[in-house]
Amino acid sequence: MLLRDLAREFLADRLRQEAHYTIERLQQNGGPPIQWLESDSLASEVFHHLYVLRVGNQVSSSHPDRLSLLLPYLDDTKAEVFEVQWQGRKLLIYREELTLEGQQGALLIGEDFAQVESGLDALHWWVGAIAGALLVLLILLNLIAVNRSLRPLAFLQRQLSEIQSGQRERLALDAPSELDNLIAQLNHFMDELQRRLLRSREAVANLSHTLQTPLAAVTQVLRGSRPINEQRRHRMLERMEGMQAQLASELRRARFAGPVTGQRANVIGEAEMLIDMMRTLYPVKRFELQVSLSPNQNIAIERHDLNEMLGIVLDNGGKWARECVLCHIYKDQDLVIDVQDDGRGVDSSALSELGQRGKRLDESTPGHGLGLAILKQIVAQYRGRVTFSSPLGGGFHVRIVLPINCL
Known about the structure:
Elements (H helix, E strand, L loop, with lengths): L1 H28 L12 H6 L1 E7 L2 E4 L5 H8 L6 E6 L2 E12 L2 E10 L1 H52 L14 H44 L6 H25 L10 E2 H15 L4 E7 L5 E2 L3 H18 L3 E8 L2 E8 L29 H11 L3 E5 L6 E8 L4
Parallel strand pairs: 7-9
Antiparallel strand pairs: 1-2, 1-5, 3-4, 4-5, 6-8, 9-10, 10-12, 11-12
């Protein structure tokens, strides 16, 4: 359709120019030269044109046999370029009005459009053949491109099979840049699984090493014939409590999820729930919560891990505070949790010892020195940091910083 319209417009423009030229010649010569209107004229043979001229009441035509077909168009002032069917052939006609020697007239110039259409049909076949060849070529190129693009995925699949069979521990980064993030995430996921496996093995080893001696001592005492006096009973009780604390600590560590679980938690909701719980456990202490987050904002952190971190620092503040524990949670570049109490604080020389496993700076309150150590382990899972400080005016301040890009 586009080629046909272009050809029709081109021929119409050529007929328009020829009509203007013919009218100009007629006006210069004062009348129509008879040879222009003959069917065997040079214009008719070379250009395959026909002419119909009306000046006043006189009508002349180069093809009298077609005159009856074209007479109605001489007076049709609306027609300019139109098509006429004649004996199975299609003629393209251009009409132009003129004034010659004071008389009004009209000129029709036509050309056989069938020859143009036959040439267009041949051109259509050529265009179709070329388009078909290009389509086949594009399909082949697409198949080659898709095949080459899927090679990295096949390579990645082989690496995953090697990891499954134990021949490989990590994925190689020899892949297109589009897969870099995927491979990095998979490597991070496998590293996290490896850390969990090592943590589980370490927990089993710690339990085996820690519980073996107390259990052997308790078993020996129970199997022996010596009476259990108050002193021996007290020592056995201490060892049993130590084993219980060790078991509780390892079980808490086993529940760490880490940042690869894909879970999210509502920080405000969890913090409010824990604050209410602490107010019940420590009714004489005042717990205040300040949160600079939107109410419905969820953070990419496992809910139990968040509760564990908040629970440790709030419980620690409830134990040592005189009257008030303040918890402030906000998001700067990172997620920050500040918990401060108004207790007597900690000596600056002893701050570096906080968070060591089993290390207790004060034996006046019950505990086993595991809470802050567990807190540091959880925060380390999220690539965060924990800092302890004790202001000059007293009190104890714990700051937990969790990087947002790791959440």
